[in-house]
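User: I want to check something. If I give you two sequences, will you return the structure for each one separately, not as a complex?

Assistant: Yes, each is folded on its own. Here is the first sequence with its structure:
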Amino acid sequence: MEHKNTWETYDEKQLKEVDVFAKEYMDFLDNGKTERECIETIVNTIEAAGYQELDTLINKNKPLKYGDKVYSVWMNKSVVMFKIGKRPMTDGINILGAHIDSPRLDVKQNPLYEDGGFAYLDTHYYGGVKKYQWVTIPLALHGVIVKKDGTTVEVNVGEDEDDPVFFVSDLLIHLANEQLEKKASKVIEGEALDIIIGNKPLVIDKNNKSARKKADDNSDENSDENGKAAKDAVKKGILEILKETYEIEEEDFISAELEVVPAGKAREAGFDRSMILAYGQDDRVCAFSSLKAMLEVGKTDRTACCILVDKEEIGSVGATGMKSRFFENAVAEVMNLTGTYDELRLRRCLAKSCMLSSDVSSAFDPSYASSFDKKNVAYLGGGMVFNKFTGARGKSGSNDANAEYLAHIRDIYDKEKVNFQTAELGKVDLGGGGTIAYILARYGMNVIDSGVAVLNMHAPWEATSKADVYEAKRGYVAFLENADI
């Protein structure tokens, strides 16, 4: 089976729409490099489109009716949106599900130290990464620091042109003979991914009041403290900057969530500008396309739903991951406001629902052709992707969609003229991966993996085709309007 390259199917009007959509997507990536930033951007967008917060409606006991739009945020890291359909939710709902977390470096709770004249932040990598890809590139620091009094301090350093950036150092090639003999997984160890954040020691003026106060003390303990201050002068310089800029102390790192991500904006790639090169496209490409589909879809027979979650890259765990009860609880609350909730009806709703687990798939890379089955791989520019199953080796850990559901999806997309392709992640026995599909499938609903092909997946900079991103949005709209099996 062969499919046309999606670019060949577009007329001039569609080509312009692709570029406009790509620009919106790139702006989304630039404004949402962390889960919290994504949620803030999404909430601002959907509230402007008329979505109401679920908790507000619950407190007012305000009923929901056909056409109403409602959303719920959990811990500022996950969000679910509903557009109420004409039919009761017990008939099932149509769900788009994607994740908004991406591989990165997380700053540890006791991170700041000095060594060799440098100040460092100690990190712990998050998700599946090739650690060597994170050295010597410009890095930015995003996140929040919550002080004991509950004050939240937002941090975003490294994105503006005038901002400083940070980096992880690497051994110079002249001394790297032993390093180059190591396996790629060992060339850079996880504990070596500490970012350099400063090199200038703090110089205290002799007339400085606090310095004079220390000089007046005449204990041996204070002499040790003075020696320590001299030893950690670079670290103390960083702490003074943090105090002046953010009004935080070193202990405030304990209650901080700081993420280290590649610095810089999403860029068009190629002389033809056909691709997008950016951080975090796994899986924000599907999250953005799903969000836009929810905003574009009109009134539907079945309730339309979109859930964008955290923690997929580490197993969908925790209160904000797909394995939590957040989604199920939100569905129950929405059903209650439509006057149809009880436990049995909730179970019927979930079992009769249809879902696209919207996550990325690996794109064929000719430079590493031996890793792919060319007949069963996604190609950049080939349209949105369907993976009947994911998992590893013998499909371990996957959701394997049934043939009837896949036939129903094919029928929808052929009628709506959506360009799509089918794929597997790579050759059998080379590895594998999973999505949130199997978690929703536990309710008994029909679920299939769908999304966008990505080159350089999980690298600091990933590549997608503008055409595929656009087709994903078109496909998600078609699904929300027509899925019913």
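And separately, the second sequence with its own structure:
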Amino acid sequence: MDLIYRVAGGSIAAFIITVLLLKFLPGEKALLGHDRGRLYAQGSAVNIGKPTGVGFYFTMTFALASAVSCYFSPSLLFMILATVASMMTGFLDDRSAKAWNEYIKGLLDFIMSLTGAFFCVMFYGSDLVIGLTGTAIHLHPALFYVLAVILFVVSINATNATDGIDGLSGSLSILSIATLFVISAINTGSANFHKNGLVSGLIMISVLLAYLIFNFNPSKMLMGDAGSRALGFFIAFYAIYLRIPFAYLIVGLPFLCDGGISIFKITVGRLTKKKIIPFKNITTPLHDELRKNRGFTVKKVWAVLVCSALIIDLVYIGITMIIHFVR
């Protein structure tokens, strides 16, 4: 019963508080920046001037609601603070008059990834579970650390690159968080095994639902790097916390296909001095390809990518349930 109160109370309070904050945007002039548009991004001009960096509001609400609602855990408390810190690296850029150099942002992401991975290994060890089968695996801590760093870096950047269509990044994040917990619950046989995971996951989903009220097309405001970087960090941490980090390869597939492919394309192009450019004939992120070259509307792009993600997640959950039932 106590768990139900924590889940319901924390989630409902977080949703209401986030709606009120985004409705009135207290301290907007002092806190928020305004969108500058994105170079080469299809249709980004329509967002110029909109308040950006509102990820500050829903991330802080998530952090406070989680700190109050979750069962006390020093490790979880640290990761909540780390999510806030990751948000701040994007928030300061959102509100600056001139966009930060991408190498500075990349360095900050890398530092956050190194820090997050270190404390994950220290607090949670290097044991993990293959989400599909429930098979337990122990990795050498050094190998686990390297893989965790990669997961954080990829998740932060892929989530950030996906945030270019109204409602897309928030919707995909909700699906990813929900699917990760369901897979974890199937493997453990009980949602109570990860009480803090249930509470913190639902609180994050609640603040994102509140944000989407204002971000569906036509959007009134944008999460900015403050929101996308915090979400990317949290999703990576959540997968590690639930002991199913490799599940990101499936639940994070929409992020990888949309935003991740753009990061991969740019990285390879720069490393080879543009001698090799993967996906040369595809405009990236993928949502720009659909809008620019396929003539999709914003709402159609959102529907196609979110429905694709939902199908992937449902198939993943279904196959996992079948495997565990047969076993």
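Because they were folded independently, the notes below concern the second chain alone. The two ends are 31 Å apart (CA to CA). The chain has a mean pLDDT of 91.
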